[in-house]
UniProtKB/TrEMBL annotation:
It catalyses: L-glutaminyl-[peptide chain release factor] + S-adenosyl-L-methionine = N(5)-methyl-L-glutaminyl-[peptide chain release factor] + S-adenosyl-L-homocysteine + H(+). InterPro entries: DNA_methylase_N6_adenine_CS, HemK-like, N5-glutamine_MTase, PrmC_N, RF_methyltr_PrmC, SAM-dependent_MTases_sf, Small_mtfrase_dom. It comes from the Bacteria. One of its GO terms (biological process) is methylation. This is Release factor glutamine methyltransferase. It comes from Falsiroseomonas frigidaquae.
Amino acid sequence: MTTCEPDGLEPGESVGAFLCQAGQVLRAASIESPRLEARLLLGHAMGATPEQLLRDPRQKVPPEAVARFGAALAARLAHVPMAHILGRQGFWTLDLAVSPATLIPRPDSEALVEAALEAFPDAAAPLRVLDLGTGTGCLLLAVLAERPAAFGIGVDREPEAAALAARNARENGLAGRAAFLAGDWDAALAGRFDLVLSNPPYIESAAIAGLMPEVSRHEPGLALDGGADGLAAYRVLAQALPNLLAPGGVAVLELGQGQRAAVESLALQAGLGLLGCRKDLGGVDRALILAKKPFGGPAARD
């Protein structure tokens, strides 16, 4: 059985010893899934997958990996998100680069992709797609990956986010069908779109400080802060969508927990139609599906 001491590991110690120590330290810091995170951190430092580490726990950790591992472990103990340490995050079928300029893509947001694909089931449809607040580009790129005749534009107020989304498009082979702009959401857009996606900021301003430190300290405030009641961005979206949607067009908006009724009310006041709401894997109303009146084409499907 592998044993380990909490301190004093040196180059040449085994992978098993490093994993044991890291797991103990992470567990003591109340990090969820400490054993998994230890494997991810050490694999990152050694340029190996977690599976490769487990296949040979007696292999020695090379000297050049020790400093990288120590820095990564220290960052995680400071509640830097794992995705920021690794520089990558999986979403849908994509592997995406991430940075502190954007929200980290979350599995809950895949409910928006599912809703969008259900609204437009024809894989050959030449859709025009708009993603407002694109961040990493995760929503737009996931839809483009599944709809090969579609073209999309992603807009973000943060130039660094728009640049990162463009990088993700290139790395996932989608750059030819995606363009990214830095600016205020709809200010410079004159076209009409079949599908509008958005994961807007929806956290109440006063609640941000109470979020887990990985979020409150390390993710961008502009992408989190939805104003005093969490609805500021939805008010802007509700007014913008009627001019952005083509006839028969559909909008899919991410919701925070408990926000469905309020956002539906804003949409109705703006003259939009309600097509339904898709829950995430946790059973939370997550993807609100709206249409421009009068309904037509794919937008008529619930």
